[in-house]
Amino acid sequence: MRTGRARHYLAGVFRVPALVEVRHGDLLSEGTYDVIINSANETLEGPLFPYFPIGAECESGVFYQEDVVDGRLHIAGGPELSRLCRRLPELPPNDDPDAPFPSAYTQRCEIGKARLTEVPEKSDLAGTCRYLAHAVAPMWAGDLDQEEQQRRLKLLTQAYSSAFKVARGSGRSICSPLLGAGAKQFPIDLAARCAVEAVLTEANRSTWEKLVFVDARQECVDRLLEEFQKAE
Q1: Which of 60, 62, 65 lies closest to 48, judged by CA?
Q2: Widest distance between CA atoms in the chain
Q3: pLDDT in tens, 157-169
Q4: What is the residue-wise DSSP string for 47-76?
């Protein structure tokens, strides 16, 4: 494993068996990839309103559009990215009152699934990647019993697996944030464990040559390093 001290640096390189890198830095400026995995919501239209921890004050821990991966990718992709997302098939209305997005919002991707779009050629994203795999992780909030915790962990792992699946044939390099560990409120250690589990499952069947996890938070980088070191 190689390490560095700069703010943006390569923290680790692993073979599990495919090449996996863990980097500390900005996902949108760390490199050029064929596919970037986006931490999306069910609408695939970017954040519709600020995220904040359930039960918190409105000004406590708020994540605005420019603070989350989904928002930043949609800002860089511009209106054309929104149009590409809206061309994806709509899901039947969700009448579950506990659903994150009720039936008033058009949904295009289920929790635990992913959808692929091209990147608009004339957008600011064009020099960063060619495709986006929009993966929808569940929320981790409230007082969850053991059964519900396991269900949501499984959905998070499935979101990665679905993203890897839809990305097959779209290139040789994939970049991903640590899904679930930001606005979705997953404990970072559990989010990292799900990420590595999905990578290990996919590694033997995937066509990608390099997978890069990029996160600006040191704790996320450290937890990913620990989990990949266990897997080597």
Answers
A1: 65
A2: 50
A3: 999 999 999 999 8
A4: -SS-B--TTS-TTSS-B-GGGSHHHHHHHH
DSSP conformation letters of 175-209: EE--TTSSTT---HHHHHHHHHHHHHHHHTT---S
Q: Specify the pTM.
A: 0.86
What interhelical angle do 188-203 and 146-167 show, nearest 10?
A: 40
Q: Encoding tokens for residue 198?
A: 């999905």
Single out the residue of 118, 146, 113, 132 nearest to residue 176, CA to CA. Answer: 132
Q: Write out the DSSP string of 78-111.
A: HHHHHHHHHTSPPPPP---TTSSS-TTS---S-T
Residues sharing a CB contact under 8 Å with residue 63, sequence separation 6 or more, in sequence order: 47, 50, 51, 52, 182, 183
**DSSP state, 138?**
P
Say if CB 43 and CB 107 are below 8 A apart.
yes
* Pair 196, 179: CB distance under 8 Å: no
Q: What sign does the dihedral 34-38-42-44 (CA atoms) show? A: negative
* Residues 6+ positions from 214 with CB-CB distance below 8 Å: 23, 24, 25, 26, 27, 30, 175, 176, 177
| pLDDT tens sequence across 206-232 | 778 899 999 999 999 999 999 999 987
Burial class from Cβ neighbours inside 10 Å (0-12, 13-18, 19+) for residue 175 reads buried
- Dist. CA 88–CA 12, nearest whole Å: 36
Residue 126 DSSP SS3: coil
Is there a contact between 95 and 144 (Cβ–Cβ < 8 Å)? Answer: no
